[in-house]
C-alpha cells in the first residue's frame, strides 16, 4: 500500500523521517561499540607499556629489548587515541545530522516545502566516507536524497593519504610524552648491560618476548578491524 501511494503521491515524509532516524541510531550504536572497544584496547596497551618498563628496570640484560617494546606500545597507543578522537568527532557529527534532519522534516510539515541543506550535505558527505559507517551512511544518504534534503553524494571513499595516515610513524617527542604520562614521569633510562646469562634462562626470556609480540599483533588486528 505504501509503495502504491509513493508511486502516485511521492514518499511519505513521516516514513522517510523514521527510516532516517533508524539509520542514524544504527550508526550511533556502531560508533558506540567501536569507541568502547578502543577504550578497552587503550587500557590494555597502557598496561603493556607498564609491564615492559618494569622488565627493563628489573632485568638489565633485557633492558634494550624491553625499552624498545615500550616505544612500540606507545606508538600503538597514539594510533588508538587518534582513532578514538576520529570516531568521537564522527559521533558528534552524526548527532548534528539527526537534529538537522528532524528540523528539516518539521519545517516541511509546517511550510509544505523542503529546502536542500548544505550543512547536512557536508556532514553526510564526511560520514559516508568513513569505512566504519560506509554501508549504512549510503542508505541514509539515499533516503535524504529521496526526501530532497540533500543532493546525491559523489565522493564515497577517503583519499589514500588519509587512509595511510594512521600507518605513519609517530614523532619521538609524542612517543616520549605518552611514556611519561603512562609511567607517571618514571620513564626508564636503564642502559643495556651485557650480562652473561645461563643457557637455560634464555628460553623464558624468548618466550616472554614472543608473547608480547603476539599480543601486539592481536591489538593491531583489532584496530585494523575497526577501519575495515
TrEMBL record:
Q: Name one GO biological process term.
A: vacuolar transport
Task: Give me the ranges of the annotated region Disordered.
Answer: 194-213
Top-rank taxon, per record: Eukaryota
Q: Where is the composition biased (Acidic residues)?
A: 199-213
- Stored PANTHER family: CHARGED MULTIVESICULAR BODY PROTEIN (PTHR10476)
Q: What is this protein called?
A: Uncharacterized protein
Amino acid at each position: 500500500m505504501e509503495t502504491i501511494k509513493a508511486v502516485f503521491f511521492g514518499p511519505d515524509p513521516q516514513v522517510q523521517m523514521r527510516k532516517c532516524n533508524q539509520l542514524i541510531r544504527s550508526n550511533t550504536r556502531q560508533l558506540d561499540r567501536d569507541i568502547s572497544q578502543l577504550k578497552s584496547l587503550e587500557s590494555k596497551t597502557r598496561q603493556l607499556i607498564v609491564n615492559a618498563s618494569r622488565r627493563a628496570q628489573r632485568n638489565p640484560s633485557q633492558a634494550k629489548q624491553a625499552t624498545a617494546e615500550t616505544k612500540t606500545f606507545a606508538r600503538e597507543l597514539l594510533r588508538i587515541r587518534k582513532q578514538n578522537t576520529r570516531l568521537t568527532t564522527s559521533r558528534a557529527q552524526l548527532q548534528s545530522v539527526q537534529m538537522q534532519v528532524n528540523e528539516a522534516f518539521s519545517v516541511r510539515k509546517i511550510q509544505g516545502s523542503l529546502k536542500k541543506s548544505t550543512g547536512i550535505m557536508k556532514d553526510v558527505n564526511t560520514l559516508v566516507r568513513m569505512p566504519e559507517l560506509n554501508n549504512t551512511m549510503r542508505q541514509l544518504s539515499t533516503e535524504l536524497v529521496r526526501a530532497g534534503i540533500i543532493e546525491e553524494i559523489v565522493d564515497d571513499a577517503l583519499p589514500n593519504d588519509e587512509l595511510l595516515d594512521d600507518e605513519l610513524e609517530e614523532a619521538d617527542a609524542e612517543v616520549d610524552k605518552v611514556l611519561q604520562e603512562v609511567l607517571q614521569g618514571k620513564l626508564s633510562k636503564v642502559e643495556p648491560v651485557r650480562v652473561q646469562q645461563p643457557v637455560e634462562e634464555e628460553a623464558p626470556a624468548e618466550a616472554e618476548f614472543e608473547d608480547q609480540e603476539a599480543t601486539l599483533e592481536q591489538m593491531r588486528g583489532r584496530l585494523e578491524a575497526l577501519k575495515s
